[in-house]
Amino acid sequence: MPGAPAAGTELCRVDDIAEGTAKVFSFGDGKELFEMFVLRRPEGLFAYVNDCPHARSPLDWRPGEFLTLDKTLLLCTMHGARFTIEDGICVLGPCLGDSLTKVPVEVNDGVITVAG
Ligand code: FES
């Protein structure tokens, strides 16, 4: 994808994202703007492009706010689509069955890094 960070790009330390919250990362600008987020949960890290498959809008209404009130699903606040946290599949809303785009990440010495 245009503007996407190369494998090996360091994002932040795991400890920089409090458990249960997410952090947004932006690369490039203009038509090459690439925005992604990493959600930290007890079961691991989940990283997706911040781009809803319904209308290509960012999901978060405030930076880093990606979860439903009960914190069981990812939410696109533009039109209310809901996605599973584990695989980013839309389970409710106008893009039912579509998916968010995963960003592969790994942790090296406590640093979240874009994987190859
Ligand atoms: S842009 Fe996400 S539900 Fe419409």
CATH fold-level name: Rieske Iron-sulfur Protein
Strand content: 35-45%
Distance between the termini: 14 Å
What spatial order of strands do you see in the largest sheet?
1-9-8
Number of domains: 1
Count of helix runs: 0
Q: What is the CATH C-level name? A: Mainly Beta
Alpha-beta classification: mainly beta
What does this protein look like?
This protein is 0% helix and 35% strand. The chain has one domain: Rieske [2Fe-2S] iron-sulphur domain (Rieske Iron-sulfur Protein, 3-layer Sandwich). The mean pLDDT is 95. It has 116 residues and is mostly beta strands. The structure holds FE2/S2 (inorganic) cluster. Residues 52, 54-55, 57, 76, 78-81, 93-94 line the site of FE2/S2 (inorganic) cluster.
Essential attributes:
Rieske Iron-sulfur Protein, three-stranded antiparallel beta sheet, 9 strands, binds FE2/S2 (inorganic) cluster, 0% helix, 116 residues
Topology:
Elements: E1 10-13, E2 22-27, E3 34-41, E4 44-49, E5 73-75, E6 82-84, E7 90-92, E8 105-108, E9 111-114
The chain binds FE2/S2 (inorganic) cluster.
